[in-house]
Amino acid sequence: MTVMIDMGKDPKGQVVPMDLEELLATRLLVQGNSGSGKSHLLRRMLEKSARFVQQIVIDPEGDFVTLAERFPHVAVEAAAYNESEIRVLAQRIREHRVSVVLNLEGLDVDNQMKCAAWFLATLFDAPRDHWYPAIVVVDEAQIFAPAQAGEVSDEARRLSLAAMTNLMCRGRKRGLAGVIATQRLAKLAKNVAAEASNFLMGRTFLDIDMARAADLLGMDRRQAESIRDLERGHFLALGPALCRRPIAVKIGEVETKSRTGGFKLMPLPDSKNSNPEDLLFSEPEEPALPLASPEPPPPPSSSQLMELLQKEKEEEAKIAEAEAAENPVDNSQKEALIDALLSSIVEEEENAYRQANLLYPEFTIGCRMHGLSTPPLDLTAFTKRLTIAKAGLSNDDLQDELWQPALKAASILEDDIQAVFLFLAKTAKENAPCPDDEMIARIYGTRSAGRARRLIGYMENQGIIAIRTDFGGRRSITLPALGWTTSTAA
């Protein structure tokens, strides 16, 4: 499907279109000094293409959050999230194809770079099933891909530069079309800028920036002087998604506005009725004195604390007995509740990498919310059932005679590999495709696919499993103790 969006008009009054499908394949670089109209250009492109493609905006100044008022974008305040939450958000953005503006305005430059790096890296690392086409706009790209080290940490610069390089160099195969805007080409890393095939060059004054812009546009040094004469909102366009020869374009109007807007001259305040010196140097008004607070009571002694704790325990025990008497829960209901709680814990992405003792409080809270004042499993029993739940098994499977050999074989293995063994057994029993290293790593409780491969190698050396790999690199796994084999991975 070919979609052409109207970017503005050339000097003859003809519409200058942008081929959206070609843009997805060839990327775009926008350059211009502050005040040249870069943000206006990006806003025009985003508004005109919002109906056709998912849009993801990295917004360091909070200029584009107003898109959410007119279009189905979600404005995300990055300052309210941590690293893991930003990664989860990026995963869901790729999965559900939601257009988003990531507002980095509340962060310092170092944290802006780190946050953008984690966000872009997660977009880039999305599973193949989520490789949908999306335009990724990065405003003020020189912040995230600087040509030289600045006053930021080496870690932030390394992470951010790697993420930007992946976006521009390898993002196309994953459906990500990078659109980067910068005030100065000289401050932007060359390996990031060089991957763009489309250019919109606005007004700039420094010789080094004009020379680089002219070089990208295929103009000689004399023609480069015209870049200095461009008016606000006027750009020189070139590229397969725009035109085959450089042409001037005046960017069209937009429907939304920036939160900050432009500043214009306004009258100064009238100083006739007030003395400016008094406004600056007058003594501050005396703050009201706070009311005197009563003396705090003396702290209780250790014996009193022990008595209070004992009374609380006795009261909790009485309440639990009363609740149990009023709402008796039979064993079948209890086991169904345990399975449901364990399933909800295992389904949470981050819980795969947490220890059982850290998940146990979540389990006990869930029990109380469902009417069980006393948890039906202690920590040891919870750990065993969590291992079984990670493998995708339930209490019904524990009672199934067909599963008894697998449970018996798992019981003699080390605790940390029982979940992986049972998961492989379930996959083989269902004749499902052999799981990949990433899935095995998650069951094992690590984000490292390398550790998962070492674990599989160890299990093979111990005779716990046997691995077969065909000429196409497709793997299947056999469990000799059970005689079960997974199907070949797709």
TrEMBL record:
Gene3D superfamilies: P-loop containing nucleotide triphosphate hydrolases. InterPro entries: ATPase_Atu1862_pred (IPR014588), HerA-like (IPR008571), HerA_central (IPR002789), P-loop_NTPase (IPR027417). Signal peptide: none annotated. Residues 15-84 form the Helicase HerA central domain. Residues 261-282 are annotated as: Disordered. Pfam families: DUF87. PANTHER family: HELICASE MJ1565-RELATED (PTHR42957:SF1). This is ATPase-like protein. It comes from Zymomonas mobilis subsp. mobilis (strain ATCC 31821 / ZM4 / CP4). The lineage of its organism: Bacteria, Pseudomonadati, Pseudomonadota, Alphaproteobacteria, Sphingomonadales.
